[in-house]
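#data-curation
PF: Archiving a pair of folding outputs for the training set. Convention for this channel: one message per protein, sequence first, structure tokens after, nothing in between. First:
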Amino acid sequence: MRGAEMENIHLPVMLREVLEILAPKEHEIFIDATLGLGGHTKGILEAAPNVTVIGIDQDPDAIAQATERLREFESRIKIFEGNFSQIAGIAALSGTKEIDGVLADLGVSSLQLDSPTRGFSFRSDSFLDMRMNPDPGIPTAAEWLRTTGQDELANLIYKYGEERASRKIAKWIVEKRNAGQPIESTFQLADLVRRAVPRKPKDKIDPATRTFQALRIAVNNELGILDQFISDAVDLLKTNGVLAIITFHSLEDRIVKHAFQRLAGKCQCPPRIPQCVCGAAKKVEVLTRKPVVASAVENSENPRARSAKLRACRKLELL
């Protein structure tokens, strides 16, 4: 894919707001923990002379396309294949000890969502894969649906998709596989969910959206690794370094909000516990009292931005 074509299909979410918060300066070093197609990284590299970016992504296809897109900056970027949860090890591997800023744009990338073969979307019919890292050792979404117990399946659809009809959906999925008709394609799953959760006139999203979200989160363990990533990223920052995170649904945003509060010294323990056990310590200043959202103009140009929320914190000097 040529650079101009890639620019047209991939608009980095809230790029202006991200650059305002990170405020790249000459010779600073940043980590883009979710490189994707490199849109945010390109903006950071263009923002000031001699800025260096360490890019991380677990998707080989994304890395290949980002490498091509960022070829003009190849002397100022190092790209590593890996999950954002591996940020500490990758920073060490790159030979970098302190970072001026870290960015994470969470959730499924445009490349993955738009792919007709990766199974993230029900816009086209494909095998239910949903792995951000297509490593053969990682179970696909179809394998999850073939092997997960009914109660566990219902619980994860409710927890990660906030789907009230999760028990009915799980029951139907298990009935299908017990009848020798396991759910293995995006259209199969979407059709089953739509029959279990009829669409109401006031609904703004397809009924299958929440179940697809839940399954994708479970397959990639997206929420399980987020809290530790935030702690590791803050540890890597220099004093006054900034961590910025873009989320796309309430579960992610809640984790980021609470992690930032804990790192800002606000105890997260239940009120009846006599002594703090959550590890709250004042390491950062929260820069976004409320999450930053995309402008109306960006929302009209880039529908993916509509659900995006940006939060950021600045590392304090530790006494």
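PF: Second:
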Amino acid sequence: MTDLKSQFEKAARQVKQLAKQPDSDTMLRLYALYKQATQGDVAGTRPGPMDFVGRAKYDAWAELKGMSQREAMQAYIDFVESLQQ
């Protein structure tokens, strides 16, 4: 897992150095995969309807419920690599 974790951390650094700012959907996917990889399944209550950003983040993360942290790390790495091409 150590090798996977180091690759994950490297990918997290690479996101900050992308040539262009990703669109909102891409950012939500990155957020959700990162949270799933680092914290596991979503916790807490869903934000209210007036908290548009918080609600979108929560929903994106909730869609990954049941994905293992290891799977989420690999998916995050793969997704970041696809953004660099």
